[in-house]
Design goal:
This protein is of the alpha/beta class and about 130 residues long. It has one domain: Rossmann fold (3-Layer(aba) Sandwich). It has five helices and five strands, in the order E-H-E-H-E-H-E-H-E-H. Strand 4 (about 85), helix 4 and strand 5 form a beta-alpha-beta unit. Helix 2 (about 40-50) runs parallel beside helix 3 (about 65-75). The model has no long low-confidence stretch (mean pLDDT about 90).
């Protein structure tokens, strides 16, 4: 029996970015689910049970930081799904904010397919090691 493909929840308010990321991740042999803002992300997290979340920071209704905090509150003790923030912002304050909200990594847009693969695979490997 083949191992199950890992599922990544892609969260971004820009539909074009969601589509590009989902296509790139599909080429890397991942399944994807998508959400357009933090509110949708929390619902999709409950429904889809992803192995990793790739989330924008700046979004309407609920930003990525607040969504990350809500997702962390939903997790069962001991279970921690990697959350990678993908954002155009790159200041030390932004990096600190994503870490304080519960994020595992911070990737600056635009991201190459190679960097995306390396960051996702590293986060998944760290999660397996916990």
């Amino acid at each position: 029996m083949e191992p199950r493909r890992k599922k990544i929840l892609v969260v971004d308010d820009d539909p074009a970015i969601r589509e590009v990321l989902a296509t790139q991740l599909g080429r890397l042999d991942f399944d994807t689910a998508c959400a357009g803002d933090g509110v949708e992300a929390v619902s999709a997290f409950k429904r889809e049970k992803p192995d990793l979340v790739l989330m924008d920071v700046m979004m309407p209704r609920m930003d990525g930081l607040a969504a990350c905090e809500k997702i962390r509150a939903l997790e069962k003790k001991g279970a921690r799904i990697p959350i990678l923030f993908l954002t155009a912002r790159d200041s030390q304050h932004d990096k600190l904010s994503t870490a304080l909200s519960g994020g595992d990594d911070f990737v600056t847009k635009p991201v190459s397919l190679q960097e995306l693969r390396e960051r996702v695979e590293a986060a998944l490997a760290r999660a397996r090691g916990r």
